[in-house]
From TrEMBL:
GO terms for molecular function: peptidase activity. It comes from Aporhodopirellula aestuarii. It comes from the Bacteria. This is Rhomboid family intramembrane serine protease. GO terms for biological process: proteolysis. Residues 54-205 form the Peptidase S54 rhomboid domain. Residues 271-292 are annotated as: Disordered. Keywords: Hydrolase, Membrane, Protease, Transmembrane, Transmembrane helix. It is found in: Membrane. Coiled coil: none annotated. It is a multi-pass membrane protein. InterPro entries: Peptidase_S54_rhomboid_dom (IPR022764), Rhomboid-like_sf (IPR035952). The chain crosses the membrane at residues 12-35, 55-81, 93-113, 119-139, 151-171, 183-204.
Length: 430
């Protein structure tokens, strides 16, 4: 027996709505006969009518204690993952929308194409929809399971959400294939999963959820799905990193130097190293005053082009050229962010450290996020909890609620590892 009880996905919002939904399900179960619905059939999904009210109410009705408890355990687990990203208000609306869609896709075809006999109840359709949402938003995060085998062997195991989703899809699909493609519990579960997919993609596309670059599309290398200015994949699973508008290399290059975008007058100012300071386009004694491109500009243009094309080796080489010419200080934050995120795709942690340190040293909105990334690398890849603690303690205040939550979690992990190391050093050798 496997029972889910938690997740390693980042939980930035307390699961208020999830607890409320569990409480509502339990209360309705107690108030409507504890499975013996009797006079409450009008609350379940009846196939002899089309009733939008039942699309919602049927998702809160259950036929037995085991039916209720099983559904609520999985609801808690998926609620942690999804509400943890959305907050209670968005999650509540999402749950209501999934219930409506799941109820409609179950009731309408049965009413139109069958004799309308029978009905359905339970939250499992919506829970399977939440599973589909979870696998699109956080496929590489784990679900913590407690397992028991013959009451002799027990323990815990972590299973990736993608594996959980594939397993349950396979089980339900095989049952449907074996018993025939008719309305049944496995078919309702599959319909629930089909409902969750468009909801997940829609919210991701329109920036209604921040998956921090760990959504399914980003991990498959398809690129950011959101139409908003979302960041590329982060360097640590579930860690909030950078959100920045797309950089434009051409707009960052200004007449042989690397300067921020400015006015038309500034765009026409020539690079003054060895020049007369005359505007571009003017001529003196029949010769153009246009300067030659300097090393910084050339290196930056190649650097930005390599990032745009996802050519990581070329980007690393160009970044080294920028460092050799002392040009990194002039590279815009957004371009450094894009470079860091490109390196994170292949887990090149050592190479990420240097651009992260440059970004952390600046007084910009990305500085604290960069410090979090550095702390993660020091803690989990360099096994240096002392450095991680020092970096986390030097973060600039005030912090947002999300950053403060991640910092607190990392400090707790770093202190725990430091204590383990100190205890190991003090244990006497035999």
């Amino acid at each position: 027996m496997f029972l889910p009880y938690g997740t390693d996905a980042p939980v930035y919002h307390y699961p208020v709505a999830t607890i409320g939904i569990i409480a509502t399900n339990t209360a309705l179960f107690l108030l409507t006969g504890m499975g013996d619905c009797g006079g409450y059939d009008w609350l379940i999904l009846e196939f002899d009518q089309i009733n939008p009210l039942q699309w919602v109410t049927s998702a809160f009705m259950h036929g037995s204690w085991s039916h209720l408890i099983g559904n609520m355990i999985f609801l808690w687990c998926f609620g942690l993952i999804i509400e943890g990203k959305l907050g209670w208000h968005k999650f509540g609306l999402l749950y209501l929308g999934l219930a409506l869609a799941d109820g409609a896709i179950g009731q309408i075809p049965m009413y139109l194409f069958t004799d309308g006999a029978g009905g359905a109840l339970g939250a499992s359709g919506v829970i399977f929809a939440l599973l589909a949402v979870a696998v699109i938003w956080a496929p590489e995060n784990d679900i913590h399971f407690f397992y028991v085998w013959n009451w002799l062997f027990h323990g815990t195991i972590d299973v990736p959400i993608s594996v959980v989703a594939f397993f349950y899809f396979a089980v339900e699909f095989l049952q449907v294939t074996w018993t025939g493609f008719s309305m049944s519990t496995p078919m309702l579960h599959l319909l629930g999963m089909s409902v969750g997919i468009p909801f997940a993609i829609f919210m991701l596309k329109h920036g209604l959820v921040d998956c921090e670059g760990w959504d399914l599309f980003s991990r498959l290398g398809i690129g950011p799905l959101s139409t908003k200015d979302d960041a590329l994949p982060r360097g640590s699973k579930g860690l909030p990193l950078f959100q920045t508008a797309p950089y434009r290399a051409v707009d960052q290059l200004r007449l042989g130097g690397i300067l921020p975008p400015s006015t038309a007058a500034a765009r026409n100012q020539r690079y003054k190293e060895g020049g007369s300071g005359l505007p571009l386009g003017r001529q003196t004694n029949g010769e153009s005053t246009r300067p030659k491109r300097n090393a910084c500009a050339s290196a930056f243009e190649s650097f930005a082009r390599a990032i745009r094309a996802n050519r990581i080796e070329q980007a690393v080489t160009c970044f080294d050229r920028l460092r050799e010419n002392s040009c990194v200080a002039a590279v815009p934050d957004s371009t450094l962010v894009a470079y860091i995120n490109l390196l994170s795709k292949t887990d090149r942690h050592t190479e990420r450290l240097l651009p992260l340190r440059f970004l952390a040293s600046r007084s910009s909105k990305y500085a604290n996020n960069a410090r979090l990334q550095i702390a993660v690398i020091e803690l989990r890849h360099n096994c240096d909890p002392q450095s991680a603690i020092k970096i986390l303690e030097n973060m600039r205040l005030p912090l947002t609620e999300k950053l403060a939550s991640v910092r607190k979690r990392l400090l707790r992990e770093a202190n725990a590892r430091l204590r383990e190391r100190q205890q190991g050093e003090t244990e006497p050798t035999r």
